[in-house]
Amino acid sequence: MPPLGKRLRKLTAQFLDLPQDVVFDIPRITMIGNLQLYIENHRGVMEFSDKLLKLRLSSGYVEITGQDLVIRAILTEEVFIEGTIHNVAYKIDP
Amino acid sequence: MHSNIVSLVRGFVRLRVRGKQTELLLNRLVDEHIMVWNISRMNEELELDIHLSDFYRLRAFLKETGCRMRVIARFGVPFWLHRLERRKFWVAGLLGFVLGLYMLSSLVWSVQIIGNERVSAQTVREIAAEQGIRPWAWKFLLADLDTLSARLMQRIPEAAWIGVSVQGTRVTIELVENTVPEERPLMNPRHLVSTSDAVITEIITEQGKPMVRRNMRVKKGDILISGIIGSDNFQQVVVAKGEVKGLVWYEYEVNVPLKQSRKVYTGNKQDRFYLVFGNRALQITGYGHEPYAQEVKRQEREVLKWRDYTLPFGWINEETYEVRIDTYEINPDSAKQRGLSQVRADIVAKFGTEAQIHDEKILHESIQNGKVYMKVLLEVEHSISEERPIVPLAAGDPISD
Question: Number of structural domains, chain B?
Fold first, then answer.
């Protein structure tokens, strides 16, 4: 059973038809083809190379694989990636 | 994200960072709100862009994460300025050019004067030069344009309005000149005298002393309006002006032949077409015709035009009509009418359309040798005044005819 606060927020979100990322602390991932990727609400870079990017999330992490990956811009909560993206995968913390 | 222009103004460098904990460095920079961008991995080394101002804060974080870096490229205004410092003469030339352009454009290069008709442009130019409007004068030393035009107005009384305007390096002085009434032609003192023997029908005197009245009989050369006014003691000589009309009699001898001839078209016609280039005409059609014994030519000339311009090309349509001369007889009555209308036309030609024919009398009429002979007396009313200058014979000597 999740804590009461979380349940209440979920109910509110359903009732008011709000997007989930506004209410919960979860990332919004926007992808333009396989060329650009825009991730909001990340928690930092765990690993970065031209083939692999691991981004920490509020729970777990997301693993992006591809080729010639470049971080075009990075802010505390946002990251903008360019390159040829093959795979975006959610992983639970090791 | 970030604007490219802002980054260029602030200046940024591309770094290559080596170390085991480059991701940690990245997180630390992001946490500290140090903007980095275009991050890519090159064999264990991280390449990234960073603003020049943030670059100096980077050292602490490098030390903290055990990374090393080197600069591989520099971009932006601060670096350009640094490079310019070594090219002083080039910068001086650039500044000199800009300054020179500015100085040359703040000079008056030419003074244009428009709208002057009676005042010569040279005069206006000289007066304007006194007020500082001359080539090679500084534009910013010129007085206010309204003041300038007011001063020029004072110096050029012939102008009703003067406008001074500056377009770039050219000063335009626009004049509107006063309209001066036409000067009256100077006239000598004169009398108005009669041109012929007549009976006065009308006299209107504008200036001078009328010497005749209506219904008076005058002879050729009589003074109608005198140019000498006043009594014997107080005389003045003036230009006599006025309008005097009189009845005059003319005797005409006319003869009208009873056999008349006239031109008649035979109906034969030749067409010719010419192309015109400048002053030369080239005949295109209508060759091989025998010329007629008597002919009348009619030409229609067309010239190509475009707007106001006349082009030197055109064509001519020429039509030649054959004519023959027919003789025909008229009866004595219509010969008489012809003779009279000739006489009337002659009166109009001599005295203008204002002349009025009051009476026509045929004094004598005979037919001899196929001609009608007539003697006609006409009573015509027309202007009979003529100028005669007053030449003073001696001081105070009145002129009389």
Answer: 4
pTM: predicted TM-score of the whole model, two decimal places: 0.43
Per CATH, domain A25-91 is 3.40.50.150: no
B30 to chain A: which residues are within 8 Å by CB? 44-45, 74-76
Domain that holds residue B150: 110-177
- Under 8 Å between Cβ of B276 and B313: yes
Q: Quick count: other Cβ atoms within 10 Å of Cβ B222?
A: 18
Q: Is B88 on the interface with A (CB under 8 A)?
A: no
- A44 close contact with B: CB closer than 8 A: yes
B31 touches chain A (CB under 8 A): yes
Note the pLDDT of residue B51. Answer: 92
Would the pLDDT of B65 be above 50? Answer: yes
Within 46-85 of A, beta carbons closer than 8 Å to B belong to 46-50, 68-76, 80
| Identity of the residue numbered B195 | T
* Domain stops at, among B279, B296, B326: B326
Nearest alpha-carbon partner for B274 in B218, B326, B315: B315
- Is B40 within 8 Å of A70 when comparing Cβ atoms? yes
Given this model, what pLDDT does residue B286 score?
84
Residue B17 has pLDDT above 60, yes or no: yes
What residue spans define the domains of chain A? Answer: 25-91
Residue owning tokens 């979100």: A13
Are B7 and B51 spatial neighbours (Cβ–Cβ below 8 Å)? yes
Domain assignment present for residue B224? The answer is yes
- For residue range B68-98, what is the model confidence (pLDDT) as tens digits? 999 999 999 999 888 888 888 999 999 999 9
Confidence bin at B397 (pLDDT 50/70/90): low
In this prediction, residue A2 carries a pLDDT of 67
* Cα angle for residues B222, B226, B230 (degrees, 5° grid): 140
Nearest CA in chain A to B37: A73
